[in-house]
Amino acid sequence: MLRASIDLGTNTCLLLLSDWDEKSRQVTRTVSDHSTVVRLGQGVDRDRELHPDAVARTLACLKSYSDKVKAVGLKPEQALCVATSQARDARNGTEFFSRVKAETGFEFQTITGDQEAQFTFLGGLLPGMKPEDHSVVDIGGGSTELMSSAGGLSIDVGSVRMTERFLKSDPVTDEEFWACQDSIDELLSKAVHWRETTPAKSQLVAVAGTATTLAAWHAELTQFDATRIDQVVLTRGDVHRMVEELKWRTVAERKEITGIEEGRADVLLAGSLILWRAMELLHFKECHVSSRGLRYGILNLGE
User: pLDDT tens across 237-290, in order?
Assistant: First the structure.
C-alpha cells in the first residue's frame, strides 16, 4: 500500500513516499524521501507568531509536495501530515493550517510533545533494532524528544529556539556559548529521571537534521545518502569536537564543511550542543544515527 507522510517541523519539512505493509506495520520500501529547510519557526520563540516570510516559504514547499503526491497517484488529503513544536507555540497556527488545506489539500494534525516522542521512537529505529534495547533522541528546531520502550518526554530545547535566544553573534562569543550551554543543561535535567527508567545498556539512536548533518560531516558525504548515514556511530568525543569546531567558525565557514547544507549551518552549533550535552548528562557514550524518524512513525496513524 502506497502511503505519503509529512513531518512539518520548526526548521524542516519532510515528505516520505513509501510502501507500507498494514500487517507488519512497517515500511517495506522507500519510494522517495524529500527534505526542505523552511524555517517555519522563525521568530516563534520570541513573538509566538508565524512570520510572513516563513509562511510563504512553507506554503511554496507544501505546494511542491502536493504535486509530488499527485504524481504517484495519491490525493493530498490521503497524506498523513503532522506539525510539531512551532505549531504548538504559534498564535496564528490555526489560521495558517486552514490556508494550507485550502491551497494544497494537506490536512495537518498538531501533535503533542508526548505523541511526537512516541511516533519518533516508532519511526526512528532501523530494521533489526529491538525497541527494548534502544533509546531515541530527536533534536528538532523547537523541541527535543527522548523516548524508550519505557516511555518518553518532550523538552522545549531545539536548535532554532536556542540559536535565536543565545547565539546571536557570528562567530558566537564565549559568553553566548556558555549561557546557551547552561540553559541546555538546565532544561535537559528534566530528562534525568527518564534516563533512570531506561536500562543502563540501552543504546542511543539519534534522528533528525542535526544528527544526520553531523553524520554526513563525519562521513564526508558530498550528498545525502541514507544508507551511509544509517551506518554512522558518533561517540560523545566526536560530537564534542564538532561543537568546538563550530563554535569558532562563522556561519559562512560552516557552509564550507563537507556535509553541512546551507539551511542548517546557522543552527547546527546549538543542535550539536544539545546532542553533546544530552549524551554527557544522560550517560550515553555513543549514538547510532538514523535517517528515519517521525515521518516513518506517523504511518501508524493510518487505518
Answer: 999 999 999 999 999 999 999 999 888 999 999 999 999 999 999 999 999 999
* Three cell numbers written together for 78: 490521503
Name the residue type at position 62.
L
Q: How far apart are CA 147 and CA 128, in angstroms?
A: 18
Sorted by where each starts, the structural domains of the chain and their CATH numbers stand as 2-110 (3.30.420.40), 126-294 (3.30.420.150)
The answer to whether residues 159 and 228 touch, using CB atoms and an 8 Å cutoff, is no
Characterize 130-150 residue by residue with b for buried, 16 or more Cβ atoms within 10 angstroms of its Cβ, and e for exposed: eeeebbbbbbbbbbbbbbbbe
Query: d(Cα 280, Cα 137) in Å, to the nearest integer?
Result: 13
Residue type, 157: V
User: pLDDT tens for residues 25-41?
Assistant: 788 888 899 989 898 98
Nearest of 119, 176, 137 to residue 280 by alpha carbon: 137
| CA nearest neighbour of 206 among 85, 115, 124 | 124
